[in-house]
Amino acid sequence: MDHDLKTAPNTDGTDGTDGTADGGTGSGGAQAAAAVDGIGDDQRALGRYLSVRRSRVAPEHVGLAGGGRRRVRGLRREELAQLAGISVDYYVRLEQGRATQPSPEVLDALASALRLDAAERAHLTTLATHTSTRRSLVPQARVSPALRRILDAMAHLPAFATDHRLDVVAWNRLGGELVGGLDDPGRRDPNNARYLFLDPASRLLHPEWEDRAREAVGQLRVSTGRYPADAELAALITELSERSSDFRRIWATGEVVMCTAGRKRLRHPTAGLLTLDYETLHVPATPGVTGLVLHVHTAEAGSPDAVALARLVS
User: Fewer CB atoms < 10 Å away: N or C end of the chain?
Assistant: First the structure.
């Protein structure tokens, strides 16, 4: 039996002040505004992202002299401009939001100089898209009857679907059980980002918690670039920035992640530690409706992990 949930309160029983969250008070709350560098200022989103990524490139890694006393971390503006083959004045205008639509050639040169991967290049291109075009997009999640049937048919494979805000909008019974008990609203928040950063139980479920947290932040950053007018998304990121120092730390790195495939470990209270392969299948977006990502987990046939999954099914 699958479920369709759009929003739900934080039901983990915490107030964001223990372990993973700081409650948005004191210096943590003051730092939150600085952490949310891509929210509420579309005009400067591209420049802010360039600035963050520039700070992550060591000069010596791109053939420039490093060391000594440097006033900035990473590359200077003039160094990045030189590497990209553009004028310093034009690059400064890009960072300041006074130039917002660079040519594809300029974007490609900047991406190469910053050593961006495919996901990061795509995000850079998205941010350079005209603001009015991106602000017209505020899609909502919709779980089709066909997707519900697919989830029900995969009874022996843990599966769930997420939207661009990382809300888990549908799942099958095994998928809901595997990721913390989605069938019981009292056990965990249905938003994966809130669960990771505000519920200490997520660190027990995910032995590689830092990897899962970076993936979540990277996916949210991609979504903010695509949907800058999404008020619910902005509110989610602001809340996490106010309540979690770990979220602020990771967000400040400019992390960008696309859902792909791989292997992860999950710790279930009765099945124990499971090592599972996962694939992400993309449900295309339609006008007014966001695309969904279907996460499907499998275990190697005959392995102890496959036996443990079979026990959960029964």
Answer: C
